[in-house]
Amino acid sequence: MRRPLYVALVILTVLEVGMLAVLLMNLAVVHDPTTARLIGPVHGVVYLVIAMIALFTPGLRWQLRALGLIPVLGGILAVRAGTTGRPMRNAPHPR
Amino acid sequence: MLTRVVLLVVHVAAAVLFIGPAAVAASTLPRYVPIEDAPSNQRDTQRNRSVALALHRFSRIYGLLALIVPIACLLLGLLWNKFGQAWLLAAMVLTAIAGALYALRIVPAQAAAVAAPVPRRRITALTGAAGVFNLLWLPVLVLMVLQPGGPH
Questions:
Q1: pLDDT under 50: residue ranges of chain B
Q2: Distance (Å) from the C-alpha of residue B12 to the closest C-alpha of chain A?
Q3: Contact A48 B93 (CB under 8 A)
Q4: Phi/psi at B36 (nearest 5 deg)?
Q5: ipTM of this model?
Q6: Is B151 inside a domain boundary?
Q7: Would you say residue B130 lies in a domain?
């Protein structure tokens, strides 16, 4: 994965997890409908972008592509695979 | 009210003025990009790296400017409170597919093709991808105009 794309993926994943946290806290504590109405769709869009990066980035392993489609977890797993795992097809095992 | 009108005009104008040229540049680039194989037809003799480079720059710049379209869409959707409607979600998914195809497949393949001559089948693949990108906008446009399932 190219460097700028990976940076974008990290930022998007942080955003996705952060917004989910805000949504869940809102649900548990204040239950403000305006917050949910505004953050919910933005969270969905961020998920969609992460899923599309996982689907369309050239050379990724198919397992990572499939995992990338899972909301919230997908982004985290993709970021993790980029630092510790073997994100690309035919890439050597990390030592 | 004024905010919504301005946003809607920005959304439609950006779609016409930025996605349009991006689509044209991506569709015409394969005809001009230098080819690795021996020229086999009249068109091959007209291939010109400078033209291909210019078209690649248009693709990149207009592709970036086209990001205004989904951003305006997101703001409009929030203002109009329309995110519960299926036609909008379907159009957004199709747009996301088109955008990812463009940014992650078409533009990088263009960059490789203008950097050094590539075999003919890679150029053909680029033509095909540009065609799919162009066609993806038709269902999006129909969804935007008809808004099936939305209130009228």
A1: none
A2: 19
A3: yes
A4: -80, -40
A5: 0.85
A6: no
A7: yes
